[in-house]
Amino acid sequence: MRAVNEIIVHCTATPEGRPVTVSEIDAWHRARGWSGIGYHRVVGLLGERWQGRALDKIGAHCEGHNSATIGIVYVGGLTRDGRDAKDTRTTAQRKALLEELIDLRDRFKIQKVSGHNEYANKACPCFNASAEYDHLFEGRSKDFYPVLDRVLFRGRTGNDVAIWIDRLMDWRKVTGSNVILRPGNVFDHDVEMETIIFQKARGIVADGKVGPQTYGEMERALLGQKPYLALEVA
């Protein structure tokens, strides 16, 4: 199991009372170029507690805060007409979400719970998760520091960039194509474009940035494995 120290709570941003399945969320996220559902746990309208992405896999639910977190989402978050943000948690969902937080806290010694809106300019999860649940983590959230994802992008320099360039060159060799780049430690235009080519080849978001998903796909590519999918689809 990867090291985790925080839970981030989300909502599906769907109208109050509208059922949503794990496979539906998975399809939404694959359409965005992700490796499928980015949340690890899903809480349904009736308090169902469903598995999403495997807990040992890095999620895709909060930009910059995926490496050491677990993402939980409850179904809902909008008014019935879908126009406004709203805390739509049913009594059953509140109970199930509480149980999830306690179970995960005790299994992985989680130090902190946060809402998505604490890290992004979003209403999600449409309530103050820290205010509501932080008492569960009393004694664990002292001196807490979020783990930030390692991300490379144009303009970065250093050893991490040099390693990434080497991996891009190795990937070219594995695929039998011409090696375009040369060794270096500067993430310049050429490295960005080559990263985009790699991302397109693996079917992930082609933004030229190297974050958890791109790192993971490179590892799989160099091992000759197919792109990662959070859920197997028919």
**Regions with pLDDT < 50 over 5+ consecutive residues?**
none
Q: Tell me the CATH superfamily of the largest domain.
A: Peptidoglycan recognition protein-like
Q: Percent helix among the residues?
A: 25-40%
CATH architecture of the largest domain: 3-Layer(aba) Sandwich
Count of spatially separate domains: 2
Explain the layout of strands and helices.
Blueprint: E1 6-11, E2 14-15, H1 22-31, E3 41-43, E4 49-51, E5 69-74, E6 77-78, H2 91-108, E7 112-115, H3 129-133, H4 159-175, H5 189-202, H6 212-222
Parallel strand pairs: 1-5, 1-7, 2-6, 3-5
Antiparallel strand pairs: 3-4
Would you kindly provide a written description of the structure presented here, covering whatever features stand out?
By secondary structure, the chain is of the alpha/beta class. The protein folds into two domains: 132 residues, 3-Layer(aba) Sandwich (Lysozyme-like), CATH 3.40.80; 64 residues, Muramoyl-pentapeptide Carboxypeptidase, domain 1. 32% of the residues lie in helices and 11% in strands. It contains six helices and seven strands, in the order ββαββββαβαααα. The strands form two sheets. The chain has a five-stranded mixed sheet. A hairpin with a 5-residue loop joins strand 3 and strand 4. The radius of gyration is 19 Å and the shape is elongated. The model has no long low-confidence stretch (mean pLDDT 96).
